[in-house]
């Protein structure tokens, strides 16, 4: 092209990443010719400006060729964007990685003769250099044993930061002799532990880290760096691979405890069912650089990535407890497997949450232990459709650092860079540690059955620690026998049951939440606790919940709701469900309990009943202007958050569970848009919510609100799958309740916090009942009374001695039964409502049965089909309290689907249930 060229023809080859080069040309446009002047005159170089180059590099040299200069700029960007495709990061060298065509000089119109020509770049230290040096530097930085991906990020500030911090040291900052020795000590510790366990417990599963040993020095430098920066807590989530190694060599767990787990010994202070050793969590303190940082490893089931949202929720709660708005005080670290990260959708869901207002935690450091194989796949193309397992990081514009697992110094640098990035920008960052697993999926596996080529290579390789030790011998850092001496010293510590990481100490009590008062006996759910509020509080809080700020314009429909609430607050009208629920939250906030509501439509409520958040109809902006009456009720005494969540169930419910693990004084509520949407979070429910206490001793007071009721809305919007929760009920692990009045939901929510018992609460909430006037309750039921696990007959014209049949039910079918009974003028059938399905209220139910001395039949009535609902789980409870009565049932016939999608058929089924029950 020459110094003067056709600007229109060249425009297509220029893009945002060339901005540094273009700025230099803009400065020199006068000397470069009219073509450049026309280009810059059109404003094509407008936009964020990176740092200026030195003045000496700004003026074009003699014989300046703008076309070739532009080609060099394209070549630099090609390496930044695609150099990772040719990087030497696979320690096994399994697949030949051909250089991408964009990395060839010829692709950009450059020739061998250009290698000795000088060009300008924005590479630190190579602002003006021969092309030969430029290409050598690019290959070192992007095609060696470490490579970076950041050009997909649209922020010029982040791209410039990476250029300065990554390229400024040529991706290989020098380590001192002391640093190298420390890295070696950590590598030897990682390998020696695995070898020791292999000898002592041959053939037992431990999901060895061997092959990915560099994870230990990586995490070590990451956590020590965080501690030195003043971070107060670090929360780690990881699956099985290398977990035992992290427990011993990072968190300082005593080897004696681990050995007992291998030998199947339970400690006296352990309760519940327990879990396998590679699911267990741990906590300790890290003391470094004059600071102390609390570290915790989250308990994790075999569902691998599902721990991710739990960790993020716990981190959020810890940050809130510290009043940390930007996330600087608590660091989340997630360690992934390559196949799980790419294959399990929860990874994308959690990443999608990372920068949202309700779920952000100030950036997470992700580390992938990239074994280059899933479970038993024979080719990487069977594991994913993307080039890298970390490619989902690009969705949220997260930088990625790819590291050869046999290069612990590269891992050392990556950890420091990742921590600094998180500190600077408060965003997620990924480290892809490309390695292998020496023993296949586990120590009982024979990996050559499915990966003969890979494991043929692995069997011939020295372990990573020895590989690095040999490097240090060649550098003259250590002697030939130093590695073996370090191994023997480490194994001696194991034999003496000494903690392997002297930096880790027992956790300080000040860093723990005192859960002791929340650990009563299992039957203490029956303990009396006062949930009523006095008339003065009722009036004050009711006024707050119905007072519209001056100048605030409500939507007309919301205005009617608020106007009705004002009448309720004054005692002139009964309280509906929405008012009762808000009153429960407001009263808890006033007493110092925090409240967090989360769900896809939780602010107004899916069925337009809650209206915890009001939107001004006349304020501009996407967010508009909102008023949250609960914030005024809290008056600064306790935190309140109402979060309309992203369209996720699994990640959001996992997050809220994590919050509940760390916040016993906060009512944490997740509401499903429809009850059966919780199906998408079944792993969270099964593996954490209903079993976490008995596997790991982890208490949670999480509340799940699941809209439930058969109203002709088809199979997806009828059932919250009550039967699934009933199947999971045992050992008083959760509460399952089906409240049918406004006062009942008020007292139930308050009981969840006022009672010192912390167990999850699953509530089958209504839909049509939310506006049913029969559900509304007078003021007196809030200023007195309590939650009733069973509600007996309430109609005064049903005489106990005349009752020949007792119908027992749960939920909205009660109102349909009562209406039909009144229409038929039946006075010898009583109806009782089972409001707490589990734990079953034996004493209260027995008293109701005993109150009808002439009753001949007890009938269970439910809307759900016979193979669903509560019937199969509670029938033996009902039989226990019969006094010679016959037990029968009325329900829909068993069905593969929860409900019909035809309105007429639904009505006919519902009518039949009522007819049979009252026959």
Automatic annotation (TrEMBL):
GO terms for cellular component: cytosol; oxoglutarate dehydrogenase complex. SMART domains: Transket_pyr. It is an enzyme of class 1 (oxidoreductase). GO terms for biological process: tricarboxylic acid cycle. Its EC number is 1.2.4.2. Keywords: Oxidoreductase, Thiamine pyrophosphate. The keyword NADP does not apply. This is oxoglutarate dehydrogenase (succinyl-transferring). InterPro entries: 2oxoglutarate_DH_E1 (IPR011603), DH_E1 (IPR001017), KGD_C_sf (IPR042179), ODO-1/KGD_C (IPR031717), THDP-binding (IPR029061), Transketolase-like_Pyr-bd (IPR005475). One of its GO terms (molecular function) is thiamine pyrophosphate binding. PANTHER family: 2-OXOADIPATE DEHYDROGENASE COMPLEX COMPONENT E1 (PTHR23152:SF4), 2-OXOGLUTARATE DEHYDROGENASE (PTHR23152). E1 component of the 2-oxoglutarate dehydrogenase (OGDH) complex which catalyzes the decarboxylation of 2-oxoglutarate, the first step in the conversion of 2-oxoglutarate to succinyl-CoA and CO(2). Residues 575-772 form the Transketolase-like pyrimidine-binding domain. The keyword Cytoplasm does not apply. Its cofactor is thiamine diphosphate.
